[in-house]
Structures are given as structure tokens and as C-alpha cells.
Amino acid sequence: MSDFAKAIEEIIATHEGGFQKRADDPGNWTPNGELRGTKYGISARSFPDVDIELLTLKEAEELYRKVWGMFAALEDQGVLTKVLDLAVNMQWAGHGPATKILQRAVIACGGQLVVDGSFGPATAAEANAIDPSWLIDAICREAKAHYAGIEAAKPEMGAWFKAWNQRAAWKPR
Fold it and tell me: Is the separation of the CB atoms in 140 and 164 below 8 Å?
């Protein structure tokens, strides 16, 4: 069985460390246009009412559980960590691009799903039925394709391409 706390710990240690307040990162801006930053993967864009700079690790972990806790239904630690890492980077809660990436990966591995971007029991069950190393490889391929699509559509975000490709290829311990 997977451990959500371990997944959070690995993601923060690997990709979502300390405070940063880059003006060229859209996630650092609140919806009303205030530059507040990102810390532990908690962004001003997604959490405009949180004091990002003063956010504690414990508070960040609580937000991870509240927003992305549904991914704990993924039984393999590596699969959970990989999907949670993508979700923190690109989607709110259980609906969005990270879930579509997982669903496409499941299908590539022979699973039967509709790619609707909504994480639920069917997605979890299909993912849990696949060999984890095979599924993680497929998730990495699908994540790379997703980021490549962003790169093609938004070349002005070039400062992020290298980090996105590294994140797509990253495999949890």
C-alpha cells in the first residue's frame, strides 16, 4: 500500500522545495495580480489566501491532503508519487491534465478507461491493476508529450522547458 506522506516528502524534496517569487512564473501571481510566490508546491495562483512566504511545511502537507488526497487510492508508492508530482504541477484536485496523463498511460498499458480527466474509482482500479514500473514508464512518456504540447503552443514559456522535461522523465525512488 502507498503512503501519501512519503509521496509528499519526496515531491517537496525533489521538485517543490523552498520559497521562490519569480515574476515570470504565472503560478506566483494571485488571480487578482499580486506577486506572492510559491513554496513547497503551494502557489499563489492556486492558493491566493495563503501567505506563501510564511507557509510551514506542515501547512503545505495539509493542503496537499485536502486538494490532492484522492490520489492516495493509487496503491503503488511510485505511481502515487509520480501522479501526485504531476498533479501538484498542473492540476487542481482530481480533475485535469495529470489525471488525463495517467488515464492515457493506463490505456497505453492495456487498461480500459475513458480519458475524461476525472480521477475516481475506475481510474484508480485500472491503474492499480497494471505493473507499476510499466505504468510509470508510460506516465513519463505521456507527461513528456503533454509538456511538448505546451512548449509548441506557448514558446514564450521557454524558461520552463528544461525543468518540465526533467520532471516528465523523473521517476520516484
Answer: no
Please state whether the predicted TM-score (pTM) of the whole model is above 0.90.
yes
Length of the chain: 173
Query: For residues 127 and 74, what is the distance between their CA atoms, to the nearest angstrom?
Result: 7
Q: For residue 29, list its beta bridge partners.
A: 35
Among the listed residues 169, 150, 145, 172, the one whose alpha carbon sits nearest the alpha carbon of residue 160: 150
pLDDT tens sequence across 122-132 = 999 999 999 99
pLDDT digits over 26-51, tens only? 899 999 999 999 999 999 999 999 99
Helix (H) or strand (E) holding 39: strand 38-39
With contact defined as beta carbons under 8 Å apart, do 50 and 62 qualify? no
| Domain 4-169, CATH among 1.20.141.10, 2.60.40.1120, 1.10.10.10, 3.40.50.300 | 1.20.141.10
